[in-house]
Structures are given as C-alpha cells and as structure tokens.
Amino acid sequence: MMSKKLLWIFAVTAMMLFAVLNVFRKGEAETPPPLSVHKSVAIDSSKCIAPASFMRANHMQVLYEWRNSSVRTGNRVYIASNGSKYEKSLNTCLGCHSNNRLFCFNCHSYANVKPKCWNCHLSPMETP
Amino acid sequence: MMNEQRREFIKKTALGVLVGLGAASGLVPAFSLEKTVLPVWDEKPVPGKIRWGMLIDTRKCKEGCQQCAAACHHAHNVPDFRNKKDEIKWLWQNPYQKVFPTASQQFVSKEIQDRSYLALCNHCAESPCTKACPTEATFKRWDGIVAMDYHRCIGCRFCMAACPYGSRSFNWQDPRTAIHDPVTTYPTREQGVVEKCNFCSDRLVKGQQPACTEACPEQALTFGDLNDPRSDIRLLLEANETMQRKPELGTKPSVFYII
C-alpha cells in the first residue's frame, strides 16, 4: 500500500518536472524574427466574425473580398463591425470550425455547390 | 472525513496544474496551419517603399549542396514528379552557360565555368511576365515581389513565354500527387496553373528570412531591401563586383550574383 502511494507521488513529480522543463525549453527555442517589417497586432479568433445567419448567406462574398485584398494589396487584417480584428485567412475560420470535419461539405453537398478552395487549401477534413 | 476532502482537493489541483503546464509547453499541440504575424491596420503597405532583393555569393556556394532548394521546395509544397518534362522549379541549379548565357566576360576560368549556379525568379523591376499576363494573375506587388495570384491563373502560359529566365513552371498534372512530404503551413497549387518562387512572401509577413537564405549553411545568400541604402544587401552590392542575369534585356532583376 505504502509503496503504491510512493509510486504515485514519484510519477506525478516526474510529469510535473517534465512539463516545467518543457516550458523552459520552449522559451529558449524562440528567437526574435530577423526582419522587423511589421509590428504585430492582437488578433482575436475565438469568436465568429459575424452572426451565423449573415455568414451562411454571405461567406462567399466575405472570402472573395478577403482573398483579393490580402493577396493583392496586402491588407491582411479584417476589422469586424464591433471593432475586433481578424486575420484574413481561411484558417481564421478553420481555427474553430475544423472541429466539425463536415463543416463546409454538409451544406455544399446539399446545395450542390462545388467551390475550388480545397484544390489547394486544406479543407476541414484535412486539417491536423 | 476532513482529511479525505483535503486529499481530493490536492489531487485535483495537481492535475489541473499539470494540464495547464502541458498546454503552455506545447505538449497539447497548438493550431498548426499557415499563420501570419499581422501588420498593424494603419501600416498599410506603401507601394514602392520596399524593394526586396537577393545577393548570391556563388564563391561560397558548395558544389553538390542542395539545402536551399530542398528547404524552399519543402516549405512551399513544390511537387517533384521525378521527370524533366513535368519538373516544377522554384529554386534550382544550372551550369554557368545556362545561367549567364550573355555574360560579357570572355575567357572566364574553367573553375568558374564548371561550377553550378543558383537560379530563381529574378523579381524584375520591369517584369515581362506581369505585362504578358492577360488576367493579372501575376502582378508586381507593393514591395517589388512579382507575385502569383493562383486564384486568377487560367493556365495560358503567356508568362512562361515572356520570362527570359525560365523561372516559371506549369502544372501539367495534379501537383498533390507528387508532394512527398507535404506541410500544412502553405497551400498547394492545382493542375493547370503556373507557379514560381514567391520570394517567401509567406515568411516575410511573419518577419522571417526566406527559407533558402535561412537554410544555407555558408550564408551565401543575402536577402534585404534594395531601397534601403543601409541594408546588408546594399552594402554588399557597393563593396563587391556583382552581375545580374541577362541585364541587357532591361528587366532590372532584383537577384544579384557575386561570381
């Protein structure tokens, strides 16, 4: 009984030590970027950029606008109507929505819409 | 009784701390897709302010070393069909005669002629490819990079005919079948579009150096802003005799070579 307890304590200590070491190792690995072209900005991607009803009807226009302005003019920050900022990227959406592997495909197959996004970009099914 | 509760509490707290530390240390993986460090909203790109360029010191370039090309092709999901006809090239090596066919020097040493030289998109200031593109799929960016908007490419290959450096490759087949070690941090291309070096614009927005520059073990590649007189690349250009590929065409390449 006593030895089992000791084993437990040992295991938990070892795990904690490992975790703490990992924190330090990560701190060392991070080197400052050599080219400081842009200052970074706090991006909140924890909530949707617009209400679901709006996104259901208008996501294609939003993505089209995002794609053109980020690729061609380099404006990579989207400011929502409430002032919060998002990165103009498919991955802003997939950051949360890839939880549902069928996120895009469910509706698109129902509506028989075949967008070409996934010929090049990772789909919710392929995200790691 | 009291003791039991206390015991439970300590157990749970320890577990909570463990999970928290694990998450902070990356044991619980963070989201691993393409990501940029974003410019501040009011710092919109100013056209013409920056002109990115590269200087290749071919004296430092080791024969047989392929690390720059390997890093580039891996970072950008460049397919390898393992046959010359379908080859997709972003960064590659060629002999002197092919890289500098119009070099004005005569009777260069055998050593220089026998070396192989790096070739990539020159990101010309006067780029013939962007003028040939009917859909503006390839265009001159605000920072001097000749960029591809793969969404708009219709695969007409006018740009390939216009480019005097052979820097553009056409996807005759679906490239996804030939990417042997795909990365999730950069998209692939699709069948029927032209592709080429993007001067690592995906890494520049993260404040990183291009993949080839970073991968070179000899620091033979210098990347920087040609419009900044105090940049490393400008200082090297002033201190050394350099040459460009086919300068007589007036394309004003942004890639320079020290032979």
Word description of this protein:
The complex is a heterodimer of chains A (about 130) and B (about 260). Chain A is mainly α and about 130 residues long. Helix content of chain A is about 55%, strand content about 5%. Chain A has a domain of about 70 residues. Chain A is built from five helices and two strands, in the order H-H-E-E-H-H-H. In chain A, strands 1-2 form a two-stranded antiparallel sheet. About 10% of the residues of chain A have low confidence. Chain B is about 25% helix and about 15% strand. Chain B has a three-stranded mixed beta sheet with strand order 8-1-9. A two-stranded antiparallel sheet of chain B has the order 2-3. The relative contact order of chain B is 0.21. The N and C termini of chain B lie far apart (about 85 Å). The longest helix of chain B is centred in the N-terminal third of the chain and has 23 residues. About 0% of the residues of chain B have low confidence. At the A-B interface, helix 1, helix 2 and helix 3 of A face helix 1 of B.
Number of strands of chain B: 9
Count of individual domains of chain B:
2
Beta-sheet strand percentage of chain B? 5-15%
Unreliable spans of chain A are 26-40
Name the poorly predicted regions of chain B: 26-31
Blueprint of the fold:
The complex is a heterodimer of chains A (128) and B (259).
Chain A: H1 2-29, H2 52-73, E1 77-79, E2 85-87, H3 90-97, H4 103-111, H5 117-120
Antiparallel strand pairs in A: 1-2
Chain B: H1 2-24, E1 52-57, H2 67-75, E2 91-95, H3 96-99, H4 110-114, E3 116-120, H5 128-132, E4 138-140, E5 146-148, H6 158-162, E6 169-170, E7 194-195, H7 201-204, H8 211-215, E8 221-225, H9 232-239, E9 255-258
Parallel strand pairs in B: 1-9
Antiparallel strand pairs in B: 1-8, 2-3, 4-5, 6-7
